[in-house]
Amino acid sequence: MEPTHFSRSGKPKNLVVIIEESLGAQFVAAAGGQPEITPNLNRLSNEGILFTQLYASGTRSVRGMEAIVGGFLPIPGTSVLKRNLSQKDFFSLAQLLKLLGYNTSFIYGGEKRFDNMGSWYYGNGFDRIIDEPLFVNPVFHGIWGVCDEDLVVRADEEFTKMKKDGQSFLSILFTTTNHTPFEFPEGRIKLLDGVPHNSKENAVKFADYALGKFFSLAHEHDYYEDTVFVVIADHNVRVRTAPNGVMPLDNYRIFGLILGGGVKPQVYKETCTQVDVMATAVDLLGVDLVQPIIGRSIFSPAKESFALMQFYSLYEFMHDNKLAVLEPDAKARTYLINGPDLLPLPSDRELERDALALLTISSYLYQECRHTLPENLAVHKKRF
């Protein structure tokens, strides 16, 4: 299985990553979820690489961002977006693509000061942040900021201008609509029967409406074929307790899709994580890039099926059909994954050591400031 590397301009492709707030796989029929909520994503899923067994690193947005934008596995304790040693020269997609002259931006409907996002993005290679105060006359303004429709319309304006100027770009979009209290403008969607107006299901349906509008604009304004797009959740719907000391795996399964010009449609059914999706997206840009993303492209023969997930001080490591659970001041535990059920097994020491090794390496890379671009990095165009 080989990636497709094609760009009408002959240049490396643009990269647009849309981080969807709390978009669990259970809302998307194409990923095995509920029907009728996401018609646009169901349609778009036939046009790209759909990940049906994709797992989030954690249950907070900053955990999703450190994985998606920083290519980093969950670190014990606080996310690297909030830690002192990662506010500068910590690897990000922006640092990588600035080497190729990309314009780099973070576009967010809320305020960049939330969760220290502004400091982290500016400190790690992003040229511009377009946040809530910079949206002029938004169609809807809620508690968390402007709605997803405003977000994608502004993004399209930026991308259309850069396309006209011949400027390559990387942009990270972060949505807000699918978050309590689930506010969105009237008249955009047909509300679902049997659920409250301001419900997560209707909020997801509006988020889907906004995505449909964005991709229609991308085609209309002629940058779709020169861009790799990633639509991926930061995490699933947030929960605050872990029954029986284990977080059910479905609470981590999220939606993920890569599409764009030249991306061949397929369904990827193996277990993977957000860092794997991003390694795959970088693999599709049309250049050979040495990068420290702690994940593997699905096109790599070295790709393994595993996921590492964090919930407060609880860590779960899934490999094949087994799950290792680590938590402070307790013995490691091993479970057999039997559909939705987790069945206790005798301790699998090798599996549990692998889980601990991944946590240890993320701590080491942070403490020693080693999650950075390789020195003397060589960049080569791939042959189209």
List the helices and strands and how they pair.
Blueprint: E1 14-20, H1 39-44, E2 49-55, H2 61-68, H3 93-98, E3 103-108, H4 117-123, E4 128-130, E5 141-142, E6 145-146, H5 148-165, E7 169-174, H6 200-220, E8 227-233, E9 253-260, E10 266-268, E11 272-273, H7 274-283, E12 287-289, E13 306-311, E14 314-319, E15 322-326, E16 333-338, E17 341-345, H8 349-367, E18 379-381
Parallel strand pairs: 1-7, 1-8, 2-10, 2-11, 3-4, 3-7
Antiparallel strand pairs: 2-9, 5-6, 8-9, 12-18, 13-14, 14-15, 15-16, 16-17
Helix pairs in contact: 5-6
Mean pLDDT: 93
User: Any low-confidence stretches, pLDDT <50, length ≥5?
Assistant: none
Q: Main beta sheet, described?
A: 9 strands, mixed
Secondary-structure class: alpha/beta
Beta-strand residue percentage: 15-25%
Can you count the helices? 8
Total domain modules: 1
Q: Tell me the CATH topology.
A: Alkaline Phosphatase, subunit A
Gross morphology is globular
Secondary-structure element order, N to C: EHEHHEHEEEHEHEEEEHEEEEEEHE
